[in-house]
Amino acid sequence: MPGPDDPIRILLVDDQPLFRKAIATLIDEQPDFTVVGEAENGLDGVEQARALQPDLVVLDVDMPVMNGVEAVRLIREQVPATKVVMLTVSEDEDDLFDAIRYGAHGYLLKDLRPEQLYDMLRSVMRNETPLSPAIAGRVLTALRGWGQSGGTGPIRSAPSATPEGPALTRREIEILQLVADGLSNKEIGVRLSITEGTVKNHVHNALEKLHLENRIQAAAYVVRQGMGRRPEPSA
Question: What is the pTM (predicted TM-score) of this model?
Answer without folding.
Answer: 0.67
